[in-house]
Write a structure and sequence with these properties.
By secondary structure, the chain is mainly β. It folds into 2 domains: 85 residues, no CATH class; 93 residues, no CATH class. Helix content is 2%, strand content 29%. It contains 1 helix and 15 strands, in the order E-H-E-E-E-E-E-E-E-E-E-E-E-E-E-E. The strands form 4 sheets. Strands 1, 2, 3, 4 and 5 form a 5-stranded antiparallel beta sheet that branches. Strands 6-7-8-9 form a 4-stranded antiparallel beta sheet, with no helix packed on it. Strands 10-13-14 form a 3-stranded antiparallel beta sheet, with no helix packed on it. Strand 13 and strand 14 form a beta hairpin. The longest helix has 4 residues. It starts with 48 loop residues before the first strand and ends in a 10-residue tail after the last strand.
Amino acid sequence: MSGGTHRLFFSREDLTETHNVELSVVQAEKHGKNPLIPLGDLNEWDCGQARPWEGRSVIYDEEERLFKAWYSGTDVMTPDRWWKLGYAVSHGGVTWEKPVLEQFEFNGNKRNNICATVFGPVLKDTEESDERKRYKMFVKHSPNNREGSAIAYTPDGMHWDHFAELDLSPLGGKRYDSVVFLKDEQDPDTPWRSAGPWFRTESACRSVGTATNVPKNSLPGNTG
């Protein structure tokens, strides 16, 4: 591996030799404050479930020195499971706050932290020249096309009011459920990468574990 490159995981085959290193398995311990993102009160939109793994994004914003999470939630009263995307922040990653955004109504008022009616992995693009597109979300269902994907943009991570259809024709045009969405700083030609399962409409099943590069020109209006 050349100098200046980064690897998130290593396999033993990647290492030609080691010194004073021991491979061991350590049992994980749950933090005493779990669950870290608490459920809402009984009359709130996320009183049934608050699922950051479903929202798929927890990032550390180095500019604001703040952890940010986008999580999927639902209540216990709505028969059709009213799933929405919530926004939470934390200074240390343990104690989380839910800012009141007043964008979407639930139970007759807008005093909640719902930030979108869609969900998907989120990234903050610090190199984006257009401030309106500072945050990007890979949305599974386009608001105007349930069979297509889209990229959602926002300047602050909270007000997702701009969507653009995503051209997946270079990838076969299949419906795609993105689990990971990131920018590869080491590959300027295809900097956008996503991983997740393809959805085969004709067989109504998923091929889990498929990873792919997202061509730069497939992001509509991208200036990064």
